[in-house]
């Protein structure tokens, strides 16, 4: 960015994609502006939005700024790193400083979102005129943002083109599509292809056909036939012990997700028998370390909700002697603390819909609820949901006792149990949490301590703050 770029921006008044500031260095407000400007730039079909420091908003007089964000901190973190961690999905905004007639100008260059609404600290913002507003107050704008993202979605891309009609059966296992969606298979190839076109698995070009990313990723006979998707094959690794030092077995899937899901799920379930059994319980199915429904739902989520635009990475299942880690590329579009209660939302809507029709996944937002419920029923430690810079990971832990859990494990279990009760119209109590951990009534002080720690951590709160009786206290999640 140079002086000419600033002069170009000065031609405009403040608007949905442009904000002038003097010296506002409030980190929270900066984060909200980045969210609002990125979302608004998308709505107005702008490539970037701009937050410019050193210019008066009304007069557009260049006065310079003393705010140098590259040198600022928030807590113990550099300001920029802190902002990046609070913004989801991640956006690669950049900051440029320049001298304008001896005055310092600082400009945040903020890309328009392509992944749905950008939120800061769990909240989505939007610009209305030159003011910053909560996106939830403008549902029509939120819908437009999602529609724009879907219009440029990965699923609509082309995985292989310039094909003859006879090439398609060699590349796609179309029989799986008809069987999984419980439809009769047409006897004529032209009728088969017509149905695949209706599903947007195949598109008709002028003289040839093309297979979409949606068709290939779900029903490929071999993903290696589609070079742009080969790295998106699911990878399963079995390790010896609790770390990655020694690999016992590794397998990379070849078939499309829908075609190969049953086999992939069964393979993982078989390998998970290597998990150590630290305790036994008469309530547990001895043939499974983990409830099959938990692995199935988490595997389906990893396949469906990944960010296909993260290059060189795909879904991965790592099996250790004491846990399973299931990960996928891309930052979550829902706060991980709200996975249990949040309405369903996917960055790959067509993929999610077709996987549901193939009876592989839920699309009603109940998948994580089922996982937590199944884990609680057999008294396993609570799963850990982790959002990294460009990945999401879920960890399933092998059986252990309450005393064998770390404080963070107990808090996580308490919070998830509270969410599950709240979603079912009930409230968490000391008794319900004792039942979740499968401990006797006489040990209620242990549960009281866990509840107190979870409240102190900001994860739960009293359902009725006016009730002073600890014995009959009920609790709800912090967002309840």
Q: How would you describe the overall organization of this protein?
A:
- With 480 residues, the chain is α+β, with helices and mostly antiparallel strands.
- It folds into four domains: 3-144, Methyltransferase, Cobalt-precorrin-4 Transmethylase, Domain 2 (2-Layer Sandwich); 154-228, no CATH class; 233-350 and 387-397, Heat Shock Protein 90; 407-477, Arc Repressor Mutant, subunit A.
- Helix content is 33%, strand content 20%.
- It has 15 helices and 21 strands.
- The chain has helices spanning 3-9, 27-43, 79-86, 139-151, 168-171, 174-180, 189-198, 213-219, 257-271, 292-304, 349-357, 367-377, 407-423, 430-437, 444-456, and strands spanning 18-21, 48-53, 73-74, 77-78, 87-88, 94-100, 103-111, 119-120, 123-128, 131-134, 158-163, 202-204, 209-212, 235-240, 246-252, 316-319, 323-329, 384-387, 391-397, 460-462, 475-477.
- The strands form six sheets. It has a six-stranded mixed sheet with strand order 15-14-16-17-19-18, covered by helices on one side.
- A hairpin with a 2-residue loop joins strand 6 and strand 7 (103-111).
- Helix 9 crosses helix 10, helix 10 (292-304) packs antiparallel against helix 12 and helix 14 (430-437) crosses helix 15 (444-456).
- It is globular.
- The two termini are 46 Å apart.
- Mean pLDDT is 90; it is low at 278-286.
């Amino acid at each position: 960015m140079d002086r000419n770029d600033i002069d170009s921006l000065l031609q405009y008044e403040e608007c949905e994609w442009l904000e002038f500031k003097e010296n506002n260095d409030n980190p929270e407000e900066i984060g909200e502006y980045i969210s609002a400007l990125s979302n608004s730039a998308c709505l107005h079909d702008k490539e970037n939005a701009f937050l410019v420091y050193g210019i008066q908003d009304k007069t557009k007089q260049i006065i310079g700024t003393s705010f140098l964000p590259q040198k600022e901190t928030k807590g113990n973190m550099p300001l920029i790193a802190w902002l990046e961690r609070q913004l989801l999905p991640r956006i690669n905004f950049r900051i440029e400083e320049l001298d304008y007639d001896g005055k310092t100008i600082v400009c945040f260059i903020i890309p328009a979102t392509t992944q749905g609404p950008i939120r800061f600290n769990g909240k989505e913002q939007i610009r209305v005129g030159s003011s910053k507003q909560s996106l939830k107050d403008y549902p029509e704008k939120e819908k437009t943002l999602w529609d724009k993202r879907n219009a440029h979605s990965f699923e609509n891309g082309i995985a292989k083109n310039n094909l003859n009609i006879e090439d398609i059966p060699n590349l796609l296992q179309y029989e799986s599509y008809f069987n999984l969606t419980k439809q009769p298979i047409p006897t004529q190839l032209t009728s088969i292809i017509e149905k695949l076109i209706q599903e947007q698995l195949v598109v008709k070009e002028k003289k040839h056909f093309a297979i979409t990313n949606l068709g290939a990723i779900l029903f490929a006979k071999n993903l290696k036939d589609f070079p742009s998707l080969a790295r998106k094959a699911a990878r399963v690794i079995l390790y010896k012990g609790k770390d990655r030092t020694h690999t016992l077995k590794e397998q990379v899937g070849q078939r499309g997700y829908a075609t190969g899901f049953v086999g992939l799920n069964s393979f993982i379930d078989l390998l998970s028998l290597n998990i150590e059994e630290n305790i036994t319980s008469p309530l547990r199915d001895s043939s499974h370390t983990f409830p099959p429904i938990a692995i199935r739902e988490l595997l389906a989520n990893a396949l469906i909700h990944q960010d296909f635009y993260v290059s060189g990475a795909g879904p991965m299942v790592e099996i250790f002697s004491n846990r399973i880690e299931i990960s996928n590329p891309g930052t979550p579009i829902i706060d991980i603390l709200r996975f249990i209660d949040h309405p369903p939302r996917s960055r790959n809507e067509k993929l999610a819909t077709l996987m549901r029709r193939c009876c592989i996944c839920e699309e009603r937002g109940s998948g994580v609820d089922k996982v937590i419920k199944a884990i609680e029923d057999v008294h396993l430690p609570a799963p850990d949901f982790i959002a990294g810079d460009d990945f999401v990971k879920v960890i399933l832990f092998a059986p252990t006792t309450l005393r064998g859990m770390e404080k963070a494990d107990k808090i996580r279990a308490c919070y998830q149990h509270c969410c599950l009760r709240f979603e079912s119209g009930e409230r968490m109590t000391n008794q319900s949490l004792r039942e979740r951990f499968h401990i006797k009534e006489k040990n209620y002080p242990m549960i009281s301590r866990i509840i107190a720690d979870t409240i102190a951590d900001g994860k739960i709160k009293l359902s009725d703050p006016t009730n002073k009786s600890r014995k009959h206290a009920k609790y709800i999640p912090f967002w309840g």
